[in-house]
Amino acid sequence: MLSRMHLGVSVALVVMAGAAPQAIAQATPRSSGQQSESANQHQKSIDAARDQIWPNLAPNQDPAAVSRGKALFAANCAFCHGTDATGGNSGPDLVRSVVVNHDEHGDLIGPVIRVGRASKGMPKLDLTDAQISDIVAFLHQRNRDARLRFTYKVAAVAVGDAAAGKVYFEAHCSSCHSPAADLAGIAAKYPGDELQQRWIYPGTASSEVTVTLASGQMYSGKLEHLDEFDVSLYDAQGDYHSFPITAGTRVVVKDPLDEHYKLLNRLNDTDMHNVTTYLESLK
């Protein structure tokens, strides 16, 4: 066994051995070439990790081409797709477009611009190859910036008719929600895209369950578990109850978000934009 003195010497040697290379590194500054190589290796590691996450990510585009493409897009496409390509009066969001995501060198975007999509109301555009190339550069840069910087915002969700949205809301939503109560000031709490997401896809909520036994005794509370054999719940006092499901057991589950799920099956784009526009007026 090492003595306490020997142990102290051993530890000191280990510390000195670990510190020496660091001291040498600090005393001997790396050349600019070494620093450059280290920076290149670091950037390659970042690029490799990025490419694993976004294997089809477009490279940075020529700033001059992006600037020209932005101007061309604003003049020819913004009415439908918005000035930043995030969606407009009738055209879809191109920043999240499958065509833009998978495009390489304009092979997918170019034909759409040249031929148009008559079935969707998009006319063909009389632009030169160079102009189309600039628009492609603009769209690729918008897509790249949104995916890497996480700064993407849906700019044009409130493009409907607020008055029509109010009518729809009163017909389908007012039994559970009120603009003067739970929705008061809702538009000041959430940006338009998040607000739309919350009312269309509200997530999940605790379901309520009522269990009636064969004896007629009833238990109600928050559903904890339900399968073909058993049901369990917590009642209003926080007490836990579990029952086997037999021929005489009646189980009724109420999901507070059930009406949202039903609404999703019959909701169309016009009603969606109208209701979102109405909700954005509740500031």
Index terms:
283 residues, alpha+beta, Cytochrome Bc1 Complex, Chain D, domain 2, five-stranded antiparallel beta sheet, 12 helices
Mean pLDDT: 78
Look at the structure and give the CATH class of the domain at 63-149.
Mainly Alpha
- Along the chain, the helix and strand elements come as HHHHHHHHHHEEEEEHH
Radius of gyration: 31 Å
Number of strands: 5
Tally of alpha and pi helices: 12
Question: What does this protein structure show overall?
Answer:
The protein has 283 residues and is of the alpha+beta class. Among the domains are: 63-149, Orthogonal Bundle (Cytochrome Bc1 Complex, Chain D, domain 2); 162-203 and 260-279; 208-254, no CATH class. It has twelve helices and five strands. It has a five-stranded antiparallel beta sheet, with no helix packed on it. Helix 6 (109-115) packs across helix 7 (129-149). The model is unreliable at 1-28 (pLDDT under 50).
Chain-wise SSE layout:
Elements: H1 4-27, H2 32-53, H3 63-76, H4 78-81, H5 98-102, H6 109-115, H7 129-149, H8 162-172, H9 186-189, H10 192-200, E1 208-212, E2 218-226, E3 230-234, E4 240-244, E5 250-254, H11 258-266, H12 269-279
Report a brief summary of the structure.
Helices cover 50% and strands 10% of the residues.
